[in-house]
Amino acid sequence: MKYLDTIERRILADPNTDVPDFFRPLLQRWRQHKTEAEDAFPHYGRFDVLDIPPRLFSHLILCKLIGKPRRFFYEVVGEAIESHNGFPAAKRFLADVPLKNKKVMAREFGLTVFKRSAIFSRGPYIGRYDYVKEIERLICPYRIEGETFAFVTLARFTLDEAAMRDATLRVDRLMGVGLHKPA
Questions:
Q1: Is 168 a member of any domain?
Q2: Which residues contact 157 (CB under 8 A, 6 or more apart)?
Q3: DSSP 8
Q4: How many domains, in total, are found in the chain?
Q5: Can you give the residue range of the structural domain that contains 98?
Q6: Full-model pTM
Q7: What is the pLDDT of residues 7-25, one digit of tens each?
């Protein structure tokens, strides 16, 4: 079994800390919202999906920390993510999706609140398909109200193209969706 934990993490509190180009539009928008905020977190009402390039929509995850007890709830999960996960996650609690790295994801979301900062991280991904090797994610925390938070996240996978061709999925439909570098 693969090691499930994060292998790289960048706390993005310092404006000089950067991320790969793919993630930069969301980070720039979040940083702008944060500088305009009177709070340690930008207000979720400031986020508009139309503020990021449409090419990123299929990589977008909107997750909320809600309720009592506190639980992570996936509002939206983009097509690139769901296609390679092999299961639907939108409108479900993190605890209810068949991810093997749920604790890692909960910790990454929670760290953004604890550190009061966006976080870039990457690590191995264990999902339904063996061709998905690694995931990179940028998680940007927004306050909804009080202790209720939203996490605007972009994620992308490293895919093993040879293993993907051997998968039972239609490669012509999915080739390039979520792909950013060969393994």
A1: no
A2: 80, 84, 125, 132, 133, 134, 135, 136, 178, 179, 180
A3: E
A4: 1
A5: 8-124+136-156
A6: 0.86
A7: 889 999 988 898 999 999 9
